[in-house]
Amino acid sequence: MSASGNAMAMFGMHLAEDQIKVLEENFTKVSKHPDDATLMLIAAECGLSEEETAKWFRMRNALWRKAEGLPAELGSVKD
């Protein structure tokens, strides 16, 4: 399991490796903050609900900001 996959498990999100791969790929190559239409497409591709997918992006963004030494909350610094 990837490092972000392990971290997501701490937040109660237990995802399969293929789901994490798709989510990570979208996070790094598409957008850290997908719009509603993109979020819907990512959710469908992963077999997750839009709510689960949005939660994953919120948690993943918090981990990214922490790794970058930024505040955990969005809005303090433009990322």
UniProtKB/TrEMBL annotation:
Q: List UniProt keywords, sorted A-Z.
A: Developmental protein, DNA-binding, Homeobox, Nucleus, Repressor, Transcription, Transcription regulation
Source species, domain of life? Eukaryota
Family matches, as InterPro entries: HD, Homeodomain-like_sf, HOPX
Q: Which Gene Ontology terms describe the biological processes this protein takes part in?
A: cell differentiation; regulation of transcription by RNA polymerase II
A GO molecular function assigned to this protein is:
DNA binding
Q: What does the UniProt entry say about where the protein is found?
A: Nucleus
Note whether Transcription regulation occurs among the keywords: yes
Q: What is this protein called?
A: Homeodomain-only protein
Q: Which organism is it from?
A: Onychostoma macrolepis
